[in-house]
Amino acid sequence: MVGKVAKISVLLIFLFVAVSLLAQSVEPLPLYIQEYYKAYGRFPKPPDWVKVGTVFVYQEQVGTGTKGVDAYSTQGYNVKIVVGIDKNSGFVAGLQWRITFDLRGNIDFSSQIAQIQFAELESLAEFLSQIARVSPVGVEVQGGYLPDGGFYFAYASGDYYGFTRYNYTLSKEGVLVSSGFLENTSGTSSSVGQLDLIKITNVQFPISRLSQEILRNNYTYQGAIIEGMTGMIMTYFQVNINFDKQVSDGIYSFDSAAITNYTSSRSKVLGTDLIGPNYINPQLLKGEILSIPEIGLRWMVEGQGQMGGIQTGVYIQGVKIASYEYAQNGLLLQYIFRTSMGYQQGRIAR
């Protein structure tokens, strides 16, 4: 009986914390994942067919809306490639590339390794039901199962100063199919966004252990953010990458410390045996590393680079958006990639 009361008390604490965070416009799906992990000590299990090399391709649209009329000013793709899976915790590490185009034709590219999230629909439905019961005035939660076995839910909160709305659709296996947001803080103009799954595919990656030499050394990179039209350097920066710890089998954590002309910051970043913040498994440095013909995305080896390493290039619909040069052992030597304002480049400090 004591154990049951304790479990209920913990659950209520989670719910009150969750409602408090939702009232602050924290996204509900990541919050569900967080609370699920607190309750069960693991993440929602991905479908059995998800493996290293599984690719989720989403179409992304972001912009502004005026008086309810959507106007997307930026469109593109959000590509999530599974590069590591922890069988014990259910954590799925993904190389996530975001490639967007604005109305002027400017291309913005960003890359990170982050968690790819899934849901267990039964627990998600229960989570939303509990949230709905304790939500304050001004908060609305809706959702339910779809005819195909999938699940839809929406969360909205608002007051005199504005409102926020999130909506999600998931497949019956807990894969994110679509998501959207609408945020209004001024009463007239709104920020809007939409993400839609357009393709699931698989690419073949060699599975092999990464060299401990690369993992456990410390590295410094220096570079600049450059304005495209004038070539003016807007910001100088230095990034230090230090090995932190092994999170699980084949997944690692690193300390990243960044210093610019104006600011400094520290963060934890992820890496796997396949790829990390400043390395790649050298087994990948052969021919075509990645190809997704449906959206015209290619990452391929291009020969010898300026620093004597192996040059690779990333292309979208025939346009080069990034270059990475690696040493023979997979260590990143230098890089350059497109941004909406110009480009960012950096190289290892010798």
Automatic annotation (TrEMBL):
Identification of the protein by name: Uncharacterized protein
Naturally occurring in which organism (per UniProt): Fervidobacterium changbaicum
